[in-house]
# Entry
Amino acid sequence: MSDANPLATALAFLPHGPEFRFVDRLTALEPGVRGEGEYTVRGDEPFLRGHFPGDPMMPGVLLLEAVAQLAGVVAQSDPNHAPMPGLKLTALRQVKILGTARPGETLQIRVEVNGRLGNLVQATGTVRLPDRVLLHADVTLAGQAGA
# Structure
């Protein structure tokens, strides 16, 4: 990673297009161990038009996607492991959706990698607003062995 801005460089590990990125910026990163990031619900996202008309809110499944994306960034930035091509969300456990976010709110996403075994990465994450927790989940990501 570049010494100039390692947080911005780490975001390059996200393979998603800009329309499906739910981490706008990293606020902290301990490569391979833990990370913190933010996503601001702008209000113009296409999913808000249908979820729900007149009462837009970010779907819980996308809060979960934000955790998975940040977990991927943390795992792929690990200096002790080569990045894995095709790293994807493969399992969920202990998922609790406790709230939702609305346009103008900034999500605070936190992830900690709990373990790695071969091409599997296990992580725990939370999404919160300043005054409340919106989601807590354990996620498993899997990819191809290092390239």
Observations:
- The first helix runs from residue 6 to 11.
- The radius of gyration is 15 Å.
